[in-house]
Every structure is written in structure tokens, then in C-alpha cells.
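Quick start: read one record
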Amino acid sequence: MRYQITGKQIDIGEALQSHVKTELGATIEKYSGRPTDANVIFSKSGHEFVCEAVVHLSTGLNCTAKAHANEIYAALDACVEKMDKQLRRYKRRLKDHHKERTTPVELFGASSYILAGNAEAEDPAEPDTLQPIIVAEMETQIPSLSVGEAVMQMELAGAPVLVFRNDKKDGVNVVYRRDDGNIGWIDP
């Protein structure tokens, strides 16, 4: 498995990198036999250290965890604990469905845009033009998943919404977390 361990304005020493590889590696090996790579980022927010980890599994799913603590090693341990909990739930769901995905998730390219908001405007009146201002343009990937896998991927990533291509109907669908805690599914 490939590790990318970085720090945002923090010096990451060899001891911490070694600790990340042993702790995160042991957790991932327990639940996933074929992880491809892990990206771990350390940063500082006020007086606390923040650890963010993203693990890419060979099935195409991503697992994301984020934790913060007063010490950098404690932040890593809390992040690994969250990752362990997510992977354990993911593995249990795969066993409950009695089918494990044998082929990797197919990904389709798409464009992603960030549009400028009008929140800072002093006059909240109607803008001069109704065309939004594009701040950034990026490439993104849309996975081809079943609805159950999409919900699982959304929960693993900790995202409020996931756009995916439905395996069964071959169309673009959306799953999202509702305000009442339930999951919504848009199937056009």
C-alpha cells in the first residue's frame, strides 16, 4: 500500500510517519485485503492538531476520517479509531448483503464547477446578470454503483450528498442525507 503523509505547516518526522504506517496499516489490513493507497494530512487548528485520512480501497470506494486532539499522536489515534469503525461497518454491510464486489467500480469523467455566491454583497437586490460567476473548474469522477453501495460510500466519505451512476438503470442518481437523519434518493 502506498502512503502519502504530509503536514500543513507542520514538520512530519520519521517517527510519526512510521507510527502512521503501523497503526493505519494494521487497521486497514484487518478489514480490507487490497487497499491501494492512503493519504494522511496533519495540520494545526488553534491549539489542536488535526489529522485527516483518506484510504482508497481496491473496490473503488473511499474511506475518510478526521479527528483532532491536543497532541499529534492522539489526533492520529482518534482518526485511526474512526477509520476502524467505518471499515468495520463497511465490512459488516458487505457480509450482510452476501455479495462482495469482485470488479472495481467503474468511474466516469465529469466537470465540476465552483460558483461565486452573493453572500457578501451589501445590496441583496437582484444581480446585474443571472449568469453565475464560475470561480473554479475541475475534473471529477462519477462512480457506477448500486443504491446500497452509494449510500455506503456517502457514509464512508462523511459527505452530505453523492452523485452516482446507477448500475441497474444506467442513469445518474443522487443520494443525500436529509435533515431528519434519513437518506433521500433522487432517481430521474
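The two ends are 39 Å apart (CA to CA).
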